[in-house]
Amino acid sequence: MSEKPSYSLQHILLLDSNFTRSWSIDFDEPNFTNSVDIEVEDTRGDNMLSVTLHLTFKAGVGDDYQVRAYIKMVGIFSTTAKGELSIDQFASINAPAIIFPFIREHLSSLSVKAGINPILLSPVNFVQHSEQKKKKKTSSK
Prior knowledge:
By secondary structure, this protein is of the alpha+beta class. It is 30% helix and 47% strand. The protein contains 2 helices and 4 strands; from the N terminus they run E-E-E-E-H-H. It has helices at residues 87-113, 126-140; strands spanning 4-21, 32-45, 48-61, 64-83. It has a 4-stranded antiparallel β-sheet with strand order 1-4-3-2. The longest helix has 27 residues, at 87-113.
């Protein structure tokens, strides 16, 4: 029986950040909606794992997005033997859950600096997110 690795966070780095807002935004418009898209990718090496989260946020009416943001952050983890989680499980669930609060804080700060109310993203269930991603891969084959 092979040993599963354990993980230790080494760094969380902001790789890319882009925020755009319209001059005039009507948040009271009844059809004003927002969408959040999150992608997770990982790179594995000897005793290292990097997990990158890509977040795309859009808000507006229909296809007229009055607020847009793209944030890309990476978490770098060292791995050692004698853990409880497989690398697949950690890379798709635990690591994104560790990185996501940093993205939430960054987007909230950007929105305040842009002169609008803080954008407060809801927490994400990365177990469910991972399962949905697996279903998409299976159905697209």
